[in-house]
Specification:
With 261 residues, this protein is of the alpha+beta class. It has five helices and 15 strands.
Length: 261
């Protein structure tokens, strides 16, 4: 009788042990949690709402349209492509920063110096040679306060504009870069931007503007000249950029309304 009880107890212990191992191995609670977490992550995508396309940035933020600063419609697929390519950061779009400073990066400039002796009675002169020029979007800036619906607004606002250069450019270098660039640097300190914003009840939003810049990249050489001799003193790679402003005074770029549900 004692032997039978022992056998039953051992069988029960083995059964319970196998069951516990099975539960730990599958961990259905953990699996369900992981699945729920993955479903909560919203990647930027385009969907239909009331017969119109919107670009969904997150669970509660979306872009209803995108336009140039002069009012020309930009396809939302273009904005989505820029997000997926890393040209536009969803976090910067939903950030309510009002910074207007253009972002310039010192692009690992080539810098060489010549230790040759400068000629007596010498003077310095600089020559900028452009290697290429292209257009870039600046850092997004919030150009309106946050407003709450229901409301509809369509207005023109003013944004600050300024030229900027890589960190290794000195004050005496700037005129030479302007002369050597294949485009004209603006002298204007401000420009206008048109926008519109439609908010339903329970929504709030604001406008982000991405200024378009003409950018030049090339080599700036500094010479010392005098007594019929010219000596190369320094060579460095530099960049400079200027806002694109249309003939009607409108700043060229991309206007993106951000709406939060």
């Amino acid at each position: 009788m004692v032997k039978t009880v022992k056998n039953v107890s051992m069988s029960l212990a083995i059964f319970l042990g196998i069951g516990l191992v099975t539960l730990i191995g599958t961990n259905p609670v953990s699996a369900a949690t992981d699945e729920t977490l993955s479903e909560d992550v919203t990647e930027p995508h385009i969907e239909q709402e009331n017969g119109h396309e919107i670009l969904v940035l997150s669970e509660d933020a979306y872009i209803p349209y995108a336009k140039t600063a002069s009012g020309k419609e930009i396809d939302l697929d273009v904005i989505l492509d820029q997000i997926e390519d890393g040209q536009l950061d969803p976090d910067s779009l939903t950030s309510e920063s009002t910074s207007t400073s253009p972002k310039m990066v010192n692009e690992s400039p080539l810098l060489t110096k010549n230790s040759a002796v400068r000629p007596m009675y010498s003077y310095l002169y600089r020559v900028y040679t452009e290697s290429d020029s292209y257009q870039v979007n600046g850092t997004g800036q919030k150009i309106t306060p946050t407003v709450y619906g229901p409301m509809s607004v369509s207005e023109t606002t003013t944004v600050s504009t300024s030229n900027s250069y890589s960190a290794n450019v000195g004050t005496d270098d700037i005129p030479k870069i302007k002369i050597g660039a294949s485009f004209t640097f603006t002298t204007k300190n401000s420009a206008s931007v048109r926008y519109s914003l439609d908010l339903k009840s329970g929504e709030h939003g604001y406008i982000k503007f991405f200024q378009l810049y003409n950018k030049t990249r090339g080599t700036l050489k500094t010479y010392s000249a005098g007594s019929g001799t010219s000596v190369l003193l320094e060579t460095k790679s530099v960049t400079g950029q200027t806002p694109v402003i249309l003939s009607n005074g409108v700043a060229d770029g991309t206007v993106i309304p951000i709406i939060i549900r």
